[in-house]
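#lab-general

N.A. 3:47 PM
ok so I finally got the sequence cleaned up, no stray characters, all 120 residues accounted for. can someone with queue access submit it? mine expired

B.Y. 3:52 PM
send it over

N.A. 3:53 PM
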Amino acid sequence: QRYNMETGEFRPIILDEIEGKADPLMLDSLEEKILDPTLDEFTKASMALQLSSVPSELPCRSEETQQITRFVEGSIKKGRSDKGLYISGMPGTGKTATVLQVVRGAMNKSELPPFQFVYL
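B.Y. 4:20 PM
back already:
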């Protein structure tokens, strides 16, 4: 769910997405936001360090990224997944960022059928 500051209510992200308002993956480029000249350095640093921020590239994660990509794209092509993907690791090692990077890439691939991603 997403909190709407204007109305003071929580709405499921899917409702905003249907209305074309949601950015569930925070796909607005972090790099573009950080280059905004109206923001002070503290705000830019704070934005870059948010757990929800996903860098455009994750160093030293190519093998993991390939494995997750094969699973995600395979599931999208089949239209379902009859298996689960378990990802584990120490906090801060890039698990969420890697998955979000893979989904972001899949959303931009025209050869994949349309799909809906829900991030809880």
